[in-house]
Design goal:
It holds the Pfam family Sua5_yciO_yrdC. It is found in: Cytoplasm. By secondary structure, this protein is α/β, with parallel strands linked by helices. The protein has helices at 10-25, 47-57, 84-93, 127-136, 155-162, 201-208; strands at residues 3-6, 30-32, 39-43, 67-68, 98-103, 118-122, 139-143, 168-171, 182-185, 192-195, 213-214. It has an eleven-stranded mixed beta sheet with strand order 1-8-2-3-7-4-6-5-9-10-11, with helices on both faces.
Length: 215
């Protein structure tokens, strides 16, 4: 049976974060609040846990799972290199609603789906998410919903869709307006906006000092 914790209650928050950390380390799934929508997450380095995540969402590996990190410095161990454009965007928008696509480090032993050698990274602006990420390390996190349904804006909404496939639900209250992150692809010669969301294309262009290509 899934465990649920109200993170607005200090004792429950402490207990819930500890339970979530145990679940992640055991290869199980957790639902956590983020600054955009609720996420379903697991250990990014557990291929079986990522497969369970995709199964819970009824989604195939053709849509790779993004990775959330708890600090700026974590990215250095996950990617092939961090270009100046990435550093500039991280300094401007992390933690926050901007996801970066970069070539991942070839030495990493993970399977996030059909990534074609890339990984999508983000540092969320939410205290519960950050505390968990700083405890367990990088997590594979996707929106907490069944594929084709609306992203969950609350823990009960996530539970109604994902049920007992999740071990721990961390309830951080309503997520507010369900705006997805903006995705910027930095794998090519020119930065490219794959999806405009919480951060405007204009704001990205201003930081990089150049017009942005859109996909």
């Amino acid at each position: 049976m899934a465990s649920k914790y109200d993170c607005a209650v200090p004792d429950e928050r402490t207990e819930g974060l500890a339970a979530a950390a145990r679940a992640v380390r055991a290869g199980r799934l957790v639902v956590l609040p983020t600054d955009t929508v609720y996420g379903i997450g697991c250990d990014a380095f557990s291929a079986s846990a990522v497969r369970s995540l995709l199964a819970a969402k009824n989604r195939g590996p053709d849509m790779p799972v993004p990775v959330l990190v708890g600090s700026w410095s974590t990215i250095d161990g996950l990617v092939l290199g961090v270009p100046k454009a990435a550093r500039d965007l991280i300094e401007a928008f992390w933690p926050g609603g901007l996801s970066l696509v970069l070539p991942h480090a070839p030495s990493l032993n993970w399977d996030l789906g059909s990534t074609k050698g890339t990984v999508m990274l983000r540092m969320p602006l939410h205290p519960v998410a950050l505390e968990l990420l700083r405890d367990v390390g990088p997590m594979a996190v996707s929106s907490a919903n069944v594929s084709g349904s609306a992203p969950a804006a609350s823990a009960p909404d996530a539970e109604s869709q994902l049920g007992e496939s999740v071990a721990v639900y961390l309830d951080g209250g309503p997520s507010g307006e369900a705006v997805a992150s903006t995705i910027v692809d930095l794998t090519g010669d020119d930065p490219r906006v794959l999806r405009e969301g919480a951060v405007s294309t204009g704001a990205v262009a201003e930081v990089l000092g150049r017009e942005m290509l859109m996909s």
